Amino acid sequence: MNNNGAAHTLLAILSIPFILAVSHDVYLNFFSSPEKIEEVKSLNIDPNKFQMTPLGWVWIQYSQITHDMVRDSVSPEIWKNKIVPVLKSKTIVVSAVPLGVGIVYTFFAWLLGIWPFAHLQRFKRLTGKKDAPSVYATDKAKKATYGRK
Fold it and tell me: What pLDDT is recorded for position 61?
């Protein structure tokens, strides 16, 4: 049994934006109007009509104020050259980047034995066994004693 809850937690947190982006686009394409709901019910769905939303549209649609604040606080050159290309990208793609980086990091961390897998490599080196012990070991623990006067 591997004790790599930190890796699972990291990947779960990084998958949240991707799940939200996919859910948002599915909602807009299939459930945002009564006509679209009827198409889904009758299985009259054309996959070629599926449109992914750009990140900039989502930001303006749901938080125009923060969009304007960031645009005003950043120089026009940085806005045009660095931020606008990201905002033109599809939300699903942008939100998949942290998840992809997390998956690659987790793989290399496992390969190299660094956090969150450092305890596995150390345990293998010291004992020659494959699996590290769980935090909740089944062995009987020593009973704690308290000195009373």
Answer: 95
